């Protein structure tokens, strides 16, 4: 179910905490439109969900877990423009004050990043954005 998926890393989370994380990840709306809402079956590995929906559930799980260090590997790679915008907004709102490593080919994801390491042609270049 959706709720079991979201509570995977935080099994003691309350329904209110789960819903707050889903709202922060822009997932609550599509979840509540499903036949059984948070109790809807989504299948193994989310096979009944779109790429954008799976990404937003993954973000909701991360938000619920609230880690101090976050690694995001191509977090918007398979998304349409609308889903990418929502996922990017959710990420931007959540990462403040955290250590974040973002691996991305999309420069739009790097606007609020303090330091960018560019790997190109076997060389690493540091691009200091705010220092």
TrEMBL record:
Residues 22-77 form the ABC transporter domain. GO terms for cellular component: mitochondrial inner membrane. The lineage of its organism: unclassified sequences, metagenomes, ecological metagenomes. PANTHER family: ATP-BINDING CASSETTE SUB-FAMILY B MEMBER 10, MITOCHONDRIAL (PTHR43394:SF1), ATP-DEPENDENT PERMEASE MDL1, MITOCHONDRIAL (PTHR43394). GO terms for molecular function: ABC-type oligopeptide transporter activity; ATP binding; ATP hydrolysis activity. This is ABC transporter domain-containing protein. GO terms for biological process: oligopeptide export from mitochondrion. InterPro entries: ABC_transporter-like_ATP-bd, P-loop_NTPase, Type_1_exporter.
């Amino acid at each position: 179910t959706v709720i079991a998926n979201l509570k995977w890393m935080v099994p003691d989370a309350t329904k209110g905490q789960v819903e707050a994380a889903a709202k922060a990840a822009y997932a609550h709306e599509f979840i509540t439109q499903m036949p059984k809402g948070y109790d809807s079956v989504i299948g193994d590995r989310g096979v009944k969900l779109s790429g954008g929906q799976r990404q937003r559930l993954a973000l909701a799980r991360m938000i619920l877990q609230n880690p101090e260090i976050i690694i995001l590997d191509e977090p918007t790679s398979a998304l349409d423009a609308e889903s990418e915008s929502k996922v990017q907004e959710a990420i931007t709102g959540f990462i403040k004050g955290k250590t974040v490593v973002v691996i991305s080919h999309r420069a739009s994801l790097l606007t609020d990043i303090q330091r960018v390491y560019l790997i190109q042609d076997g060389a690493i270049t540091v691009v200091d954005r705010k220092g």
